[in-house]
TrEMBL record:
Similarity comment: Belongs to the MscL family.
Lineage: superkingdom: Bacteria
Family annotation (SUPFAM superfamilies): Gated mechanosensitive channel
Its job: Channel that opens in response to stretch forces in the membrane lipid bilayer. May participate in the regulation of osmotic pressure changes within the cell.
Primary location class: membrane
UniProt-recorded name of the protein: Large-conductance mechanosensitive channel
Membrane-crossing residue ranges in chain numbering: 79-106
UniProt KW keywords: Cell inner membrane, Cell membrane, Ion channel, Ion transport, Membrane, Transmembrane, Transmembrane helix, Transport
Bilayer disposition of the protein: Multi-pass membrane protein
Source species: Celeribacter neptunius
HAMAP family: MscL
Subunit composition and interactions: Homopentamer.
An example Gene Ontology CC term for this record: plasma membrane
One GO MF term attached to the UniProt entry: mechanosensitive monoatomic ion channel activity
Length: 144
């Protein structure tokens, strides 16, 4: 069983998948930083700094008006935090769009490289004698 597990791990597919997951995790950090540090501030300029994060409805418990979401949670109140959900959806859409644009750019570069490769003239190898030429040569040598 241990040998089978070693064989499974040693296969290229598993190693490729592991590398993909690690690179994906690192890429996720880059995309999150890009959204939080670059794109959201620009969007904030146009929306007047609109932030839904502290929007919630108190279901049960005592929470003073104007209390932040974190303070309401610390107070032990049961809350319906619709603002956090809205912000998560907005961030998802922004991240999805950024990833789409990056993938689109990578695909264009890849297609351009592939197109150049296809356009490159293939090196022609010298053609050898055809089957008919060989047969004619054999016939001629047998006549002699």
């Amino acid at each position: 069983m241990l040998k089978e597990f070693k064989d499974f791990i040693a296969k290229g597919n598993v190693m490729d998948m592991a590398v993909g997951i690690i690179v994906g995790a690192a890429f996720t950090a880059i995309v999150k930083s890009m959204v939080a540090d670059l794109i959201n501030p620009i969007i904030g300029i146009f929306t007047g700094g609109l932030d839904f994060t502290n929007r919630f409805v108190v279901i049960s418990g005592d929470v003073a008006a104007g209390t932040s979401l974190d303070a309401a949670r610390e107070a032990g109140a049961s809350i319906f935090a619709y603002g956090s959900f809205i912000m998560a959806v907005i961030n998802f859409l922004i991240i999805a769009f950024v990833v789409f644009m990056l993938v689109r750019y990578v695909n264009k570069v890849k297609d351009a490289a592939q197109k150049k490769e296809e356009e490159a003239p293939a090196v022609e190898e010298p053609a050898g004698p055809t089957e008919l030429e060989v047969l004619l040569e054999i016939r001629d040598s047998l006549k002699k």
